[in-house]
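Dear Dr. V.,

Thank you for agreeing to look over these. As mentioned in my earlier message, I'm a first-year student in the group and I'm still getting used to reading structure tokens, so any feedback on how I've presented them would be very welcome. I ran two proteins. I've put each sequence directly above its structure. The first is here:
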Amino acid sequence: MPQATAIFNLFFFNPQGDYRFSWRHPDAPGKEIFTLKYYADLARRAEAAALDNIFIADHVAIWDTVPSGVPHYANPRLEPVTLLAALSAVTENIGLMATASTSYTEPYNLARYFASLDHLSGGRASWNVVTSWLPEEAANYGLDTLPEHGRRYERAAEFIAVVRKLWDSWEDEAVLIDKQSGYFADPERVHPLNHAGEFFKVRGPLNVPRPPQGHPIVVQAGSSESGKALAAAQADIHFVFMSNIEKGLAYREDMNKRLRENGREPEHFKILGGVLPVVVNTPEEKEQRRALIQTLMNDQMALDLLSTYLRMDMGEYDANAPLPPLPEEQGFDGLRTALQIIKGYDPALTVLQLGRLLLQSSDSWLVIGTAQEVADTLSEAFHAGAVDGYNLMFPFLPVDFDNFVDRVAPILKQSGVMQQAYRPGTLREKLGLPPVRNQFTRE
């Protein structure tokens, strides 16, 4: 089932845009970001443009144990599965991707959430797997310290395996609702798990029949060694950061090798690059935008973000000097993907310069230019095989999203890179992903 066109997702990190300071934009929405209407309007517009998915990122804490956190409290967001369940009622085709942590929930609950969302949406649910890395998140769930990086991923691997078994615990033909015989379901086709592993003990079966997709699509974001190993073993879609085609091709080659080692076909695995598409018509517009961004950024927040990523207090160092020696990835319990990104920057950058870059969505690919230039760049990377599509991480909502839909999307559709209409079927079928056989079904 080939995917003839690139995948394009409307990505939400913050409700007002992907920069941590997007809420300060003069035209940024206000308290309406906590209303259904705000998201419903964006979802309907995304569906009218035939975007493939709405992808909602998430944390389960307020980032407030750093100096800039308390005065700003700028990262609240609605719970993703709840929000996407509501949006399923005002859309018909667009996929619904929700982030949920394997560190701070239980497999049974999460399997039930996504099975329910898949049923309510007619087979459009996706789960973006994260292991969570903020100390504030751990503190909200009774932990004094953040679980060690490797253990978080070991827990995640077992977690996903249990969730998949729960989704399979009802065979496709299990539901009878036979009023004559009195059987609601065929007892031979409903299976307890009796799972007893290192992290979880789950009896099962799930109290929701098998989802319309069989398994809702599993997405994984994170490019540490543990993250790539988990993606190659378990994920259908992998969200990565890339800044050029060469890096994208090298990353795909590495992932293809890992997939084959897991007995998987690379064509059944989609890689999505994070991209910030910004339409400007003239060099003057580009300079005006750069100047606006400089006025919206907060230096204390830049230092705090860098401190959080590195697990080092940057307040102890000269902000106008280069970075001090950085921790090694092995044994680092923070966000290893961010550590990799920071190590990849020019070592001549000062602490403050690097922090300000990280405020602008870390290493996400900024594609800025005219509508034709943006469309050409995205098309080139897709045709080169560097990515199968994009998480569109709009810096400012709704303005950058509107510019993309109105001006870039028509060019991509005309060239055949972006779909003009939705394919029939479930999201798994729409994206060209193979069906998943029920592991409990008898031959």
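The second protein is here, in the same arrangement:
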Amino acid sequence: MPAELTVLGLSGLLLMAHVFAATHYKTKQYGVDWNMGARDEDTPPLNDIAARLDRARGNFLETLPLAIIALGGVVLADKATALTALAAWLWLGARVIYLPLYWAGIPKLRTLVWGAGLVALLYVLGVLLLG
């Protein structure tokens, strides 16, 4: 299997980690009844950790479609190379590092790691579009 598809599969596991971490801390704050209910009631703002994890989850969900397009696209277009595979792994590594950095509230390094992941995806997207 191409590395790009392996990375996409692993990104599914990372997505689950994001969702479970964010939901765990929301449930700690709002309670199990909130988690198991319709969640229609007004709730107070999330505490710092729960809010950061929720934002990290949202950020991952914003960038995951680009990864699917770029990484899946180079495989479908038969343009995958050792460099697109390396870029895929760099993107995934950056996204794995990003979660605990955001969780811990480390702003500048977190942004640099996010940027490195984005550059890796932009490279793959460039290969897809420009060959």
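From my reading of the second output: The helical segments are 3-30, 32-36, 48-76, 82-104, 107-130. The first helix runs from residue 3 to 30. Does that match how you would interpret it?

Kind regards,
E.
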